[in-house]
Design brief:
- The structure is a single chain.
- The protein starts with 10 loop residues before the first strand and ends in a 7-residue tail after the last strand.
- Helix 1 crosses helix 4, helix 2 packs across helix 3 and helix 7 runs antiparallel to helix 8.
- It has three domains: about 100 residues, Putative Large Serine Recombinase, Chain B, Domain 2 (Hect, E3 ligase catalytic domain fold), CATH 3.90.1750; about 110 residues, no CATH class; about 40 residues.
- The chain is built from ten helices and nine strands.
- The chain is α+β, with helices and mostly antiparallel strands.
- The strands form three sheets. A five-stranded mixed beta sheet has the order 3-7-8-9-6. A two-stranded antiparallel sheet has the order 1-2.
Length: about 280
């Protein structure tokens, strides 16, 4: 019987000819019917294993790859080399039920994807498709950081919810750049020195003063204006994802397990979801 696995499941060799294996043939048809009805590769494999049906005598367990091979095997409707097991209509129905492994991201999520990071370790979270065609988001550093149940639609809806609830968010001040602060002190000290040096020209002193003024301007942003700008832009279409604006404005969107825990803007502001919000 082990030699028969050199040919597709459902067939056997008798007197040198390929013939139908009655028990396996019925299992093949059942797999196709179950898949058309909506069962996944894994669900079908688990069911066959639980019923004690064997793919091979020495293999008591089925897995999703075995099921996939059967569903992708055109031999079952081939009238040349193999006897027909699966009718053309059933085969096509199963083929139509397959979820393509290259299906596109949810609307707007393609632009948003580079911004999504793990809120625990900071790694950019990744997306792949499982064998049943469903997406799987995960943290490359630790699979426990992002829950396996997180879907494309979950992310889209959670970002939209974040947009809708911006008025309840707390906005932290921008991060101060220590290097700029040190440069500010250095320039001020240099100007003070120049002002006490009679040999320095007024023009050179004015240049340094302009540098100091420009640097101070970068540190004197109107936080109220920025907060209002962010809120108004993201609330312009409260029920739709605004990926282009988020892409321009946002440095990162942090995700932990299934929750979006915060958004860091490119100017250093961090918008956190309200601590009392329960998802």
């Amino acid at each position: 019987m082990a030699e028969n696995r050199r040919i597709p499941y459902g067939y056997q060799i008798q007197n040198g000819a390929i013939t139908l294996h009655s028990e396996e043939t019925e299992i093949v048809r059942r797999i196709y019917r179950d898949y058309v009805s909506g069962k996944s590769y894994k669900a079908i494999a688990d069911m066959l294993t639980a019923e004690g049906i064997r793919y091979m005598p020495e293999k008591p367990e089925w897995n999703k790859n075995m099921v996939a091979r059967i569903l992708q095997n055109e031999s079952y409707m081939d009238t040349q080399k193999y006897p027909v097991i699966v009718e053309e209509a059933l085969y096509k129905a199963a083929d139509a039920a397959k979820k393509p492994y290259t299906h596109t991201l949810e609307k707007g999520l393609k632009e948003l994807k580079p911004l999504l990071v793990c809120g625990i370790c900071g790694e950019q979270i990744q997306r792949r498709l499982k064998t049943d065609g469903n997406e799987r988001w995960y943290c490359p550093s630790d699979i426990d950081h992002v829950d396996v149940s997180l879907t494309d639609q979950d992310i889209v809806q959670k970002v939209i919810t974040l947009q809708q609830n911006l008025t309840t968010c707390k906005i932290e001040p921008p991060r101060r750049n220590k290097q700029i602060s040190f440069e500010l002190v250095r320039l001020q000290n240099e100007i003070n020195r120049l002002l006490t040096d009679a040999s320095e020209s007024i023009a050179s002193i004015q240049v340094k003063m302009m540098e100091l003024a420009a640097l101070r301007y970068t540190l004197c942003e109107d936080t109220t204006h920025i907060e209002e700008y962010v809120i108004e832009e993201l609330k312009a279409a409260p029920n739709e994802l605004n990926p282009k604006f988020l892409e321009q404005l946002t440095e990162s969107i942090q995700i932990i397990h299934t929750n979006i825990t915060g958004v860091t803007l490119r100017n250093g502001f961090t918008i956190w979801k309200g601590e009392t919000e329960n998802e």
